[in-house]
Write a structure and sequence with these properties.
alpha+beta; single chain; 17% helix; Thaumatin; Thaumatin-like protein; Osmotin/thaumatin-like_sf; 7-stranded antiparallel beta sheet; signal; 220 residues; 5 helices; 5-stranded mixed beta sheet
């Protein structure tokens, strides 16, 4: 009788357990008029012609993750013009600037996912990062940053952040709690929801309930 009486509680516990470890599904969609070589860490990479979608799952508890797009890739040794990851289609690490980043950490503090769009590594492709479940808000950076990029920050296929150009404490905020946005306001003014410099947390990090699924759209 004890086991029978306890069975509903056991089943509930198992249900909560499997719900808690449910992987998040990411749909990565290329709405650009050109080919994008999508990259994810973790996840690898895929070539997406215009209109194509890449779908993959990411385990709960994953932190420090990111999705980005690469442009003008040729894997015969030259790699990609922007966002390259060791000249390989399947990324094992992060991409090289400039690249627009969709960053996330799943099932963290208070059973929340944390997400952001970061321009700390510069900008190459407009991007939208939105939940497909969960009832929380999405974020977007779709401004013409490449077209308006200051001459000092221009790079082939994209627009660099000042940290990538100068690599100094002032712009990269290496262990400097009083770091200020300075000229990164060029990015912030055009994409208010995006990180423009490393300590831009208050207006740039968003949350969704753990178990939410997401869509990352290039050229929304």
């Amino acid at each position: 009788m004890g086991l029978i009486n306890a069975l509903p509680h056991i089943l509930l516990s198992l249900n909560l357990f499997f719900t808690a470890i449910h992987a998040a599904t990411f749909d990565v969609v290329n709405q650009c008029t050109y080919t994008v070589w999508a990259a994810a860490s973790p996840g690898g990479g895929r070539r997406l012609y215009s209109g194509q979608t890449w779908i993959f799952d990411v385990a709960p508890g994953t932190a420090g993750a990111r999705i980005w797009g690469r442009t003008n890739c040729n894997f015969d040794g030259n790699g990609c013009e922007t966002g390259d990851c060791n000249k390989a289609l399947e990324c094992q690490g992060f991409g090289s600037p400039p690249n627009t980043l969709a960053e996330f950490a799943l099932n963290q503090f208070n059973n929340l996912d944390f997400l952001d769009i970061s321009l700390v590594d510069g900008f190459n492709i407009p991007i939208d990062f939105s939940p497909t479940t969960g009832g929380c808000r999405g974020i977007r950076c779709a401004a013409d940053i490449n077209g308006q990029c200051p001459e000092l920050l221009r790079a082939p296929g994209g627009c660099n952040n000042l940290c990538a150009v100068f690599k100094t404490v002032e712009y990269c905020c290496f262990n400097v709690s009083s770091c200020r946005p300075t000229d990164s306001l060029f990015f912030k003014n055009r994409c208010p929801d995006a990180y423009s410099y490393p300590l831009d947390d208050q207006t740039s990090i968003f949350t969704c309930p753990s178990g939410t699924n997401y869509k990352v759209t290039f050229c929304p």
